[in-house]
Amino acid sequence: MSVSKRLYHENMYRFAEPEPSYWEATQGATELGAEPLARDEQCEVAIIGGGYTGLSAAYHLCRDLEVDVRVLEAGHIGWGASGRNGGFCSIGGSSLGKDDMISRFGLDETRKYYQAQVEAVELVREIITDEGIDSPIQGNAELEVACSPGAFSEVRESAEKQKRLLGLDTSVLTRDQFRERYFDFPKLHGAATLRPTFALHPMRYLRGLAAAAERHGALLHPRTEVLKWAKEGATHVLTTSGGTVRARYVVLATNGFTPEHLLPAFHARTMPIISAIAVTRPLSDDELAAHAWQTESPVITSYDLLNYFRLLPDKRFMWGGRGSSNGAPAGAAKNFTNLVAGLHAAFPHWRDVDIEYRWHGLICMTRRLTPTIGRLDDDPSVFFGFGYHGNGVNTSTWTGKKIAAWLGSSRSDDTAVPVSLPAPVRGLSGRFPLPSLRLYYVQARIAMFRLTDWLK
Ligand SMILES: Cc1cc2nc3c(=O)[nH]c(=O)nc-3n(C[C@H](O)[C@H](O)[C@H](O)COP(=O)(O)OP(=O)(O)OC[C@H]3O[C@@H](n4cnc5c(N)ncnc54)[C@H](O)[C@@H]3O)c2cc1C
User: Mean pLDDT over residues 357-377, rounded?
Assistant: First the structure.
């Protein structure tokens, strides 16, 4: 493991160890045939990363184009963020404000981006249904709760703009309307809903997608870390922990865990950030009633440093948020203490409820603040997709599909450009300046958000 070349503490890259998440503990019975690579092999497309991006690319390449594909994953399949997230299948994927996106890319391309986000949510639903994946589909909207009167004005204005300019399905609810239908908590000042959205079981979806990719012919190799990436003529040579893979095309699908040292083109392109989750024991009916809880839809707060939460099918409460440590044990423990303190402050009636699971992982931002999807200008046999800004369940699945279609068309026509990619996601995002200071940028940004949220 090339620990020293990674941005965070080595604890964040222990590929041999699964995160102790609720999703790991309840991953279901889906069998995978995946085996670590054990000798030198070749294939047409090698995909680095066995999360949603890599598996969706593999699934679509094999199902639609019968391409010979291998997925190389350093941990077990789904070791990364795809096996650990909050399971919100919702519209987002970007940290660029809507007004900024419109002024940079124009209204038409911004609309196209958001319509693609809607398409991406429906794509996940379709895959779950078509492939008979054993994941619950909970709720039917993302609820954004405003935590101050000023925040409610902003949430209302944003929801109206999303509807008017971008054609999204939003609605606004006053505090009384919201607590009658969804739940109540002391900071509630109103809310907005955004559809389509639902909540799923991230690991069951992941394993179902992996099994479907295998059924269509993809070969998945867990515990196969790519350690070196070289080129011999037109052939990529990937040296892994279990042998060498020679391939005509490579897809880089490693998002917040991107090994930037493997290829200079990807150096300093990502800003990984810790996101952490705590899950309680199952709540009783009386405990749920104490906060008038009556929804399975996923929820976010209006804070800059937002929290995300939902009720799980077995009535456990899941609560997530960002962390600013470097992932070393002491900092990670402090993150979890702050996370749980936030849960107790927001839902005081659940202060004494035991937390039974806690885990974390890396999400990924880009300098452009939008996902970055494309192929390298100086080597069009390399495709990439990452930078979903903490909203990758739908976006990474959609990205994998788009990469598959683009790669497929480029096999017969090397100049093909995917006109269906909206401008905000097209091409490689810029490098972060002074990249070794990226952790300090994250810490400064989180500290600033804490302050602005406190002032609200
Ligand atoms: C705690 C948390 C909560 C989140 N909640 C949500 C949510 O509710 N909704 C939402 O939409 N998004 C959420 N996200 C974000 C979402 O999970 C990600 O955007 C998405 O899973 C990214 O998928 P991916 O396949 O691109 O990357 P990942 O799933 O991170 O997969 C990348 C893989 O690359 C592998 N890898 C790295 N280096 C190598 C190498 N050298 N060789 C081989 N393999 C390598 C890693 O092991 C990893 O498994 C959350 C993320 C976290 C961490």
Answer: 97
Ligand 1 atom with the smallest distance to the CA of 52 is 25
pLDDT 10s digits, 241-290: 999 999 999 999 999 999 999 999 999 999 999 999 999 999 999 999 99
Please provide the DSSP assignment of 208-236 as one string: HHHHHHHHTT-EEESS--EEEEEEETTEE
- The answer to whether the beta carbons of residues 365 and 430 sit under 8 Å apart is no
Question: Is the Cβ atom of 255 under 6 angstroms away from ligand 1?
Answer: yes
How many angstroms separate the CA atoms of 265 and 386, rounded? Answer: 14
Length of the chain, please? Answer: 456
Residue whose CA is closest, atom 41 of ligand 1?
A: 226
Which of 363, 395, 399, 402 for a ligand 1 pocket mutation test, highest count of atoms within 8 Å of Cβ? 363
Q: Is 381 in the pocket of ligand 1 (CB under 6 A)?
A: no
The residue to mutate among 310, 396, 403, having the most atoms of ligand 1 within 8 angstroms of its beta carbon, is: 396
Closest of 274, 272, 234, 264 to residue 250, by C-alpha:
234
Q: Give me the percent of the chain exceeding a pLDDT of 70.
A: 97
74 lines ligand 1 (CB under 6 A): yes
ω before 196 within 30° of 0 (cis)? yes
- Alpha-carbon distances, residue 111 vs 48, 390, 424, 445 (angstroms): 31, 20, 10, 28
* Average pLDDT value for residue range 89-103: 96
DSSP assignment of 405-447, as one string?
HHHHHHHH-TT---TTS-GGGBSPPPPPSSGGGHHHHHHHHHH
Exposed/middle/buried for residue 66 (C-beta within 10 Å: 0-12, 13-18, 19+)? exposed
Read off the pLDDT of each residue in 302-324 and give the average, rounded to a whole number.
93
Cβ(392) – ligand 1 distance below 6 Å: yes
**CB distance 397 to ligand 1 below 6 Å:** no
82 Cα–ligand 1 center, Å:
4
* Identity of residue 269: R
Beta carbon of 121 within 6 Å of any ligand 1 atom: no
Whether residue 208 has its Cβ less than 6 Å from ligand 1: no
Cα of first residue to Cα of last residue in the chain, in angstroms, is: 43
Tens-digit pLDDT profile for residues 395-448: 999 999 999 999 998 877 655 666 689 999 999 999 999 999 999 888 888 888
Give the separation between CA 90 and CA 391, rounded to whole angstroms.
7
Q: What is this structure's pTM?
A: 0.97
